[in-house]
Amino acid sequence: MSSVSCLLYEDQFLCSICLDVFRDPVSTPCGHNFCNTCIIDHWNSNDKYQCPMCKEAFATRPDLKVNTLLSEMVAQFRQSAQQKARSSRSSSSEQQVFKPGEVPCDVCTETKLKALKSCLVCLTSYCETHLEPHLTASSLKRHQLTDPVENLEDRMCPKHDKPLELFCKTDQTFVCLLCHVSDHKMHDVVPLEKEYGEKKVKLWKTEAEIEQIIQKRQLKIQEITRSVDLGKEDADREVAEGVRVFTALKDSVERGLNELIKKIEVSQEMAQKQAEGLIKELEQEISELKKRSSEVEHLLRSKDYLHLLRSFQSFKSAPHTKDWTEVSVCQSYEGTVVRNVRQLEETISKEMKKLLPVAELKRVQQYAVDVTLDPDTAQAELRLSDDGKEVSHCGGKKKNLPDNPERFTNRTFVLGKQGFSAGKFCYEVQVKGKINWDLGVVRESINRKGGISMSPQCGYWAICLRNGHRYNAHADPPVSLSLKSEPQKVGVFVDYEEGLVSFYDVDAAALIYSFTGCSFNRKLLPFFSPCNNDGGKNSAPLIICPVKA
Q1: What is the DSSP letter of 368?
Q2: Do residues 143 and 121 make contact, with C-beta atoms less than 8 angstroms apart?
Q3: Which CATH superfamily is domain 1-89 in?
Q4: % helix / strand / coil in the chain, to the nearest 5?
Q5: pLDDT for the residue numbered 344
Q6: What percent of the chain stands above pLDDT 90?
Q7: Strands, E, within 155-263: which ranges?
Q8: In the chain, where are the structural domains located?
Q9: What is the DSSP letter of 126?
């Protein structure tokens, strides 16, 4: 049988009672075909002998005979279907075989294959082979197919044994057509398809909301991860700096200990030499005295009166001896350790004063950022270098520049291009050769036209030099700054979250001034003012320098 013929007759090979391929097909007197078992069971369960298709009634049960022609055609169809199934199974991958957790084909008798679709009319799940009649037979094409589902009986109304095709919004339950007519007649009942569409729209909305929440959580994870990474970087820097500082202190302590030991050893050596000298002198006196004692003893043993008297007259006076009453060797080390520890404390204190500012500056310099000047903000009398790293005053020559909203008009100010709304950042500016300048950060929204008041309340966190020796912080009221040395390079450090703006003398590693407790809620921009040229006395530029941490 050709494939075309097979397609034409396939829908006629299905029993209208079991909806499966005929088994022992028989024909009723009215000309309709059924499985022999199906029609007998049908008549056994009914009072009338009636054709299930055309409803024609028979007075007596017809004597049915197997339809030989149809039986042969069915046999050929079955053979063709089995060959096709075998071919399909042989070419199928392992994924097509039913696995635990998947829906199996209800028709497969040997190896259970994975179901591709479930029929809500037949209440049966089909693999690719057994699904084909539903895709080709006109009577089965009208059946509702869905993705494979288990427990298809749950889709039947338990009361009327009809498919659950409707949804009652009033009772929020699934109903069949008979339920709608009987128990839910006055309720808001809609087809499942309509309710499905409405619920799907809500699910799409829910999915979008969940996706947004997921994205926020992922961003939070990135933020936390970044925070941990930054924390680790900070920890590593602090450990390295701690090792450096404490190593220097340890070296100081070791030097102090070595000096103490050396001092005691030298003192002991001197005392030893002194003692040896005294002992030698005492031994010499003892030797002279012993000699004299021997002479006296010899005279005492003499019985010759004349000899003793003559010898006594010529007997030398007692040898000169030293008064040793007050002579002693000083070996007291009491207080030596205390004196040296106090001296060490002074040394360490000096070292700390040197090391801690350097350590703090190095910590700050880790947050260095690349800052360039924004020509759109520069007042018309300012001259900017091509690389945007230097600014100076033109000496009264005003350039013809467009008066855009970002540009300062009256004050010799210019801002950095880079803005910051979070975190920490640092940059350094050379002020060498200048007698007047202003440096700091400003709020992006500051007034740039007309009169300008410089204070934190107005969005300025800055310090300045005036007349080559007077340093001030632009606070309210202004704060006069007393510096030990004139900075040649000034560092600006900002901790946005901490509300801190600090200024450093880079070469001296000394803190100049800090604005604390600041409230930042908008973007901050680096701020520069080389001030007026002052007849050439203040012509040197402000130079943004690379930070050398």
Answers
A1: B
A2: yes
A3: Zinc/RING finger domain, C3HC4 (zinc finger) (3.30.40.10)
A4: 40, 20, 40
A5: 74
A6: 36
A7: 166-168, 173-175, 189-191
A8: 1-89, 156-187, 230-365, 382-545
A9: E
